[in-house]
Amino acid sequence: MDISIVKNNDKLIIALAGILDMFSAVELKNILIDEFSITDAIPSDIEHMIIDLSSLESISAAGIGIFAALQSAFNNSNKTLSFVSVPQPLSRLFEITNLYDHFSVYGSLKDVENSTGRCGYSIGAENLRGNRTTGFTESAWKN
Q: Which CA distances in Å does 58 have to 17, 25, 121?
């Protein structure tokens, strides 16, 4: 899996490409902990994380677990986590598992900017699902 990360002021934009499986989920978790000090709490210099899924081919339960742990950490820190550009094959998975009910999901970075006024990047695209709120309350970072 390829992981691209851009930090722009208080925003962290992560683009994932390939397959987010058990091994790459651990790699992503380690990058977030080692390079950005993201654990159960979000550092003060990060207000908004945006995860671009447009090039993600598939995701395992471990990958979904990382997303759930991130959502919990962002909720606990009163900060924002957004997902953008869920590809069609993964969109069905998000629907079946009710992830759209737990994550803020947008069609594009432009949609995030229009909704929050905080993105600072835009690529254009139609909003797929609109903004969703989260219901995750427990963290998986302690494993």
A: 9, 12, 25
pLDDT tens, residue by residue, 63-112: 989 998 999 999 999 999 999 998 888 888 878 877 777 788 888 888 88
Cα separation, 103 vs 66, whole angstroms: 12
Q: In the prediction, which pLDDT does 62 show?
A: 93
Running DSSP on this structure, what letter comes out for residue 8?
A: E
Angle, helices 22-36/61-76, rounded to nearest 10 degrees: 30
Question: Domains in the chain and their CATH numbers?
Answer: 2-116 (3.30.750.24)
DSSP states of 12-44 as a string? EEEEEEEEE-HHHHHHHHHHHHHHH--SSS--T
Rounded Cα gap, residues 27 and 31, in angstroms: 6
